[in-house]
Structure formats: C-alpha cells, structure tokens
Design goal:
The complex is a heterotrimer. By secondary structure, chain A is an alpha+beta fold. Chain A has three domains: about 160 residues, no CATH class; about 280 residues, no CATH class; about 100 residues. Chain A has 19 helices and ten strands. In chain A, the strands form two sheets. In chain A, strands 2, 3, 4, 5, 6 and 7 form a six-stranded antiparallel sheet that branches. Chain A has a four-stranded antiparallel sheet with strand order 1-10-9-8. The longest helix of chain A is centred in the first third of the chain and has 33 residues. Helix content of chain C is about 35%, strand content about 20%. In chain C, the strands form two sheets. Chain C has a five-stranded mixed sheet with strand order 5-4-3-6-7. Chain C is elongated. The mean pLDDT of chain C is about 90. Classes of the chains: A alpha+beta, B mainly alpha, C alpha/beta.
Amino acid sequence: MIPELGHFALTIALALAIAQVAVAFIGSRTGNGALLATVRPAAIGQFVFVAGAFAALAWCFVSSDFSVLNVAQHSNSKLPAHYRFAATWGSHEGSILLWVLMLSGWTFAVAVLSRALPERFIARVLGVMGLVSVGFLLFILLTSNPFERLLPAAEEGQDLNPLLQDPGMVIHPPMLYMGYVGFSVAFAFSIAALIEGRLDAAWARWSRPWTLAAWCFLTVGICLGSAWAYYTLGWGGWWFWDPVENASFMPWLVGTALLHSLAVTEKRGTFRSWTVLLAIVAFSLSLVGTFLVRSGVLTSVHAFATDPRRGIFILLFLVLVVGGSLTLFAWRAPRVGLGSGFGAVSRESMLLANNVLLAVAMSAVLLGTLYPLFLDALGMGKISVGPPYFDAVFVPLMAPAVFLMAVGPVASWKRAALPDLWVRLRWAMGVSVAAALVLPFALGKSSLMIAFGLWLALWVIAATAALVWQRLRASPQPGLAGRIRAQSRSWWGMTVAHLGIGIFILGVTLVKGYEAERDLRMNAGDRVTLGGYEFAFKGTKDLPGPNYAAVQGTFEVSRDGKPMRTLLPEKRTYAVSGQTMTWAAIDTGLTRDIYVSLGEPVGDGAWGVRVYYKPFVDWIWAGCFVMALGGLLALSDRRYRLRKQVAEIDAAAAAGARA
Amino acid sequence: MRRLALALMFVCGLAFGQASEIAHPDPAVEARLKSLAEELRCLVCQNQTIADSNAALALDLRNEIREQIAQGKSDDEIRAYMVARYGDFVLYRPPWKATTILLWVGPFALLALGLGILYATVGRRRVPGPEAPEGERRSAAEVESLLED
Amino acid sequence: MKALKFVIPLVVFAALAIFLALGLTHDPREIPSPFIGKPAPAFRLERLHEPAQTFSPADMKGKVWMLNVWASWCVSCRVEHPVLVEFSKRNAVPIVGLDYKDKREEGLQWLARFGNPYSLSAFDGEGRVAIDYGVYGAPETFVIDKDGVIRYKQIGPITPEALEEKILPLLKSLGA
C-alpha cells in the first residue's frame, strides 16, 4: 500500500508543480492578485507531497519491504538500520528522488522566507523552480520510478554496495545535492530578473544569501566525498579527477565566481551580465553533472547503471532549460547596461580577473572531462584524460586567482593605488617568500613545487592576517571585542573563507611533497618503519559483523621505541554479495595521518600490507570546513535578515546603482 | 549489464600482496614501476590505475613492466609497448598529437582569451582621472564606503 | 555588433549538447583495437588437445580465419559459446581458439561439456600472447585475412546480430 501511496504522492506533486508554474507565469504577467496568491501555496503543497513520497520510500527501505524492486536490489534485512535508511538514495531512482526532495525543499524555503520581496518577482522565481521540478518529476514518473513492484516479492535483498555502507554515504549525497540544487535558486532569481528586465543591486542582495547557502553545502559535500574516498578506498588518495568528481567541482568553481560577482553587483551595481550568466552556468553545470552521471556517456566509478532512455530524457531537459535560459540571456542581457566604471587597479578589476580566471579553470576541467567524448564522437579514437593532465593544467590556472585573493580585499573599490597596496602587503610577501625558501629544508626535502605551494598558501594566510590586523587596528572602537564586532559578519566570512583556502593549499602541498608509503608482505612478527614510526604486525583474527565476516589485523605502532597505539585494519567479506572491502585503520593527528591497509592473504599466514605516512593531510579537509564556516558567517550577516530595513537598504542601493 | 557491473566489482579491488606478485629486489625498479603504473589505465577496471588495480591483467602488466625495466628499457619504450597493444586509452596523461593539441593548448588559449577580455573590459571602463565626469564630490561617508567590504 | 557577444554562451552550449547527444550512441567502455589493419602478432604456442604440437598464425596464411579468446572461468564465454558452436557447423571459416589464462584440464573439460567449435585451440596459460594482441577481457574475437592482417575485433560475446551484420559480410568480402 505504502509504495503505491508514495507513487501517487509523486503524481500529485507533479500536478501541483504544473499548477505552480502556470499560476506563477500567468499571474506575474497579468498581475492577477488571486493567481499570484496561489503560487506560494502550490509550492508548499509540492514540497509536502514530495516529502511524503520520500518518506514512503524510506519506510519501504527501513522496514525491508522486498516487494519493492528498488529495495530488493539495494538493501538487505541484515543491513544496520541507518544504512537501510541511507540505501533509500543508494540507487539511481532513489537518489533522483532525493534530488527532487531537495529541490522542493529549496522551493519551500523560497516560498516561505521571501515575503518581503515583490510579489511578481517571487512568483517568477517560483515559476522557474517549478519548471525544473516538473522536468524532474516527469523524469522519475516516466523513466525512474523507485516504487516499482517486484512480484513475487524477493525473500531477501541483494544488499547495498559495500562501498556505500559507511557513515560518509549517509551524509555526503544529501550535502552535495543541497548544494547542486541550491544553485537553482540563484538561477531562478536570474531568470526572473532577465524576464523583468530588472537587474540591480537590490536583486543581487536578494540572491546572495541563497547562493551562499548553496555554496556552503556544496563545499561541505565535495569535502566529505574526498575524505570518504581517502579512508574508504584504501589507497590513500583523496581526489582522482574522476568525471563525477569534476561534475561536482565545476559548479563549485562557478559558484565561487558567482558569489564574488554578486558582491560587486550588490555593492557597485556593476558586473550585472556576468552575475546573471554565472548563475545560469552554475546551475547548468549541476544539470550537466546529473546527465553525465546517469546517462552512461562517461565511465566513472560513481556512475549509476543506466539505460539510454534516461540519458535522452535528461539531455532533452538540459537543452530546454539551459538552451532556453541562454537564449533569454542573449536576448535580454544587452539591454542591461554596464553600470559604473572602475579603474585598472581596483577591487572591481581584481574581482573581474577572479571571475575570468575561475571561468577559465572551469572550462579547462570541462574540456578535460569531455574531451574523450568529443574525440570518440568524431571517430578520432579513444583516449583517457586523467590526473596527470588535470594537475598540469589546473594549478597554473588557479594560482593567479589565489594570488589575487589576498590582494582584492585590501584594494579599494573604484580606484586603488598600487603603492598603497604594496605598503599593506609587503610584510605578508616577505614572510611568505622567506618561509617558502626556508621551511622545505627544515622539513627534509625541497623542490620547486613544494616551495611554490608553500609560498602561495602562506601568502594567502599572511596577507589575510595582515588585513585583519590592519582593519582592527584602524577601527575606532575601544576594546578588541568591540572592534571585532564592528566589522560586518560578511567581512569576517570573507576573511575566514580565504584563510580556509590557504589552509587547504598548505595541506595539499605538504602531503604531496612529503608523503611516503610502503607496500610489502608481512608475517606475524614482522616490522616496518615509515615516517619515524615503527609498525609491528601481530597477526590477524576473525571478527564477525552484522552483515559481513571480517579478518582483523593487529598493528602495534610505536615511535622512538615508545608504544603509541594499536591500529586494527580489516578486510570485510559481505555475506550477500560476496564482495570484499578493505577497511583501513587510520591514526589521525594534527600534523599527520598514519594509515594501514590490509591487502590479500598471500599464504603461510603472510599478508600484503600497505602503510602510509601522510603529513598534514587533514588540513585539506579542515581548510574546506573553514571555507564553509566563512560562508556560514557571511550568511548570518544581519543585512540579510532584517525585513524592515530591507526596503530602506534597497532604496539606498538602487540610488547608489544609478549613480 | 548489471551482472557485468557486479562481476567487475569483484575484480576491481585494491592491488597489493597478490600471491603471484613478487616485488623486484631493487627499490629503484619498484619506484620506476610505481611512477609508470600510476599513469597507466587498467582496461578491465577502467577507473583505476594499473598500480592500484587487482585485476589479473593489471598484475600481468605490472610484472611485464618490471621485467622490461630490469632489461633496461626506457619509460618511453615501455609506454610505447602499452600503447601498441591497447591504444592511447591506456595513458592517463594524454599524448601530444594532432588530435590532442586542442586539449593541451585549449586551457592556456582560453586563459589568453580571458586575459584579453579582461584587458579590453577594464580599458573600456576606465574611470578618467581624479575628477569624475559628473563632478560629484565625495563625502567622507562615501569614501569610507568605497573602502569597506 | 556588441550584442553578438551575448550569443556566445548559447552557441557553446549548442555545440556541447550535440556532442553529448553523439556520446549517447557510443559505449565509453569499448576500446577499439589498435591492430585493425596491422599484421597479427606472431607467436608459437602449444595446442590445448595435443601439447606435443604447436600452433602459429603463420600456419593459417592463405586462409581467412577467426581467433577466439576464451577461458573456462569466463562467464560471458558461456553466453557466446552456443553461437560459436552453431556457426562452426556452417564451416565458413576455421575458428582457432586461444585458451586464455586457464588450467589445461579445466579448459579441456569445458570444451567437452559445452561443445568444441574450434578446429584447434592454442593454450595461452600465462596470457602473454593475449597481451600481445591487446586482449583485456574474454571473450574477444579477431577476424584475420589471407595475408595475416587483422581486419576486425569483436569485444565481448559474439551475438547473432554481430555475426549477421558485421562478421559474415566481412568474411565474404575477404573471400572466405
């Protein structure tokens, strides 16, 4: 009964979404008050029914209803409860329902939280979001129904892919989808603005918090995916430039550019066309990513098993949505006008450079990801484009953007003076160059890459620190607390986020420069040394688990003869699928991870073992979290929340933009 | 298709400590193997390198590479051996050929284009001199706001 | 015309969409053989059934023939085998088997059990010859012409459609 109810709920949601689109566009076109008043309720209703459908599917999974095909294929009664719940999105059908849930959730949030905004504008925004919902709901109902029955019901399910039976699985997709889907709000705001012909500072102010929120989620989502790969896959890597990883990274790059562009449009009323285009491109990349993962067009470890019908549907939808919005852009954007001017050296020019560099970086990743497809489609052979390409191309493109990141916040709007910039930044330059030259020798090895990475990271960190110092010192407030509070949260958000990038680059440089690994055969009693630690293999024992049988190895780790801790890596064989999975044992520390992985048993009680020493690797994800924290801080800025003052601020901003 | 996918999952796990894989006594050979194998794509488990894959073919190829290194073959010769048998697909670092010029040059051409656009845009929007055309006088508050976030 | 630059994103997207559509018609996992049009690599292997005798592609010079890579452990080969057995009864071309990374006993038993379409099978226990042919998974089949040049490679099981639409016309054109 419940699966059918779920299916029915989806149909109602589709009807409500269609209604939402109709009343929104007709109402905003004609100004009909009655129609306009129905838009928000329709959007809220759509959310209620999608949530209901999702709850129904989740119920089927948690209660192990194997008469539902999806549950029978992707779950098992011996699976622990939290993984049974996560299995709801462990398949193509389930994850696309999660996508739609997120979309209707964001629609709901926009419907409820934007009462202070003009009625017709919000109607158009909800109309655009409704269009996207209609597309995805149709996709589910026509090609990817998660509620399909399996009759007669299976006795037992085929189990969730062991790689997904992990806490990371529970949280990484939801975070990621919140990000991808969240960019639909900025997209909808842009389309609504293009339709109305109104693209001013006020519009930018309205869009910014939504975009910030989506960006935070996407940052966290990508970060979690990387961390999960690191500790689950067992080869110590954390980024492979896999097509699906790239599919999440490209919207992030454009989303970052969008955030910065919105700041300029809000503050100075300029970059309007750029901002609109970036918003369209960010969401378009989310959609392209969805296509790439589910159409079978590219090989990827993440790709779902697919059927070409789905690929065709998504492609048609993509052409309609993206093609339509870019046509609207080509038609309306020329009338938008340029806005105020700015000097060759100014915050605007640096942010424009930022936009351009991020767009080029995104294009490079897109080129590399799709090139094999281009060549194959043209019959010119099959090639692979992997990490060696992306590493070689991406770093030179991003380095100038990262460099400018430290300079931009110090430059004034409209016109900045180079000598003034130099005075403010010379300490940071000196410190970073000196450290980059000296540190590698202190750490044991030096190379051009290490020195460059260190310099870039320390440049960002030192310049940000200098900026904070200068700003706090110049502040007229009496105490430190007062001075801190006097700076807006938006500003603090920026500095924290930039700091996060510096931490991230530091982590990447140090781990790539100084990591070490040993891959060898060990018998009980053997020892190996790595990175100053000694690992003594004490043997293995069998360890049963809820739905798997594990062999657990015992490694006693000591440093300078003093015992430190015991690491217990496992090799798990899952009962239903028969697959084995390596469960690495990691000792996490502030300055290093040590990582032990069990391979295959080689006979006579010997095992293949991999031991890794990874210095500062956790700084990579710490940096990402600091970035997201910065975004959150910026989001909490009071100017986005005070409804009463919105009108006043908007009037002032509109006046400023006209100047 | 599903069965094939499942079968591949059996095979495509992590590659170490296989019974028939014996590391070469010379660590320099192993180091060269690692750097070569990390840029070669496993054709069975197409999303892993030959270094990481535990497919039987990957194992055979690693042993083959070890032998060739021990025989004194250069990195280029070993890569040529792989490409002769499996095509350019096996290289994770795309080769430099007529069909891949766009791939390698593209990003930098785009960068040049972007910088060109930047130059043209900034030049066009240049605020002329210290006197603004509208003759606006800046109040202290406005100056302050130009400096803030 | 200044407004023209605003059309660029749309044009770029249109090109992208066309390529994505074309991509839907291709299988990204299928890797074409670099040997098409090149001579079949030479080798000499023991025969599966008569270890004292050997086989080499040179033995087939002057004839159009097929080389089919199979193994007793290979699941997809079971799927393909009936098609091959049926085809071998037509006696169109000799089919030589290459027993890939197998145990001799198990290979012999497998053929005894499921039928033997091969005029002979060569035993490639270590898989080195298969590597030389760029084999990356069984079953794979090569069509080789009278001059010993590889003309076609079938990746995966030979389906009746592949047989009728690709292989038979090719064999005819080669003068089989």
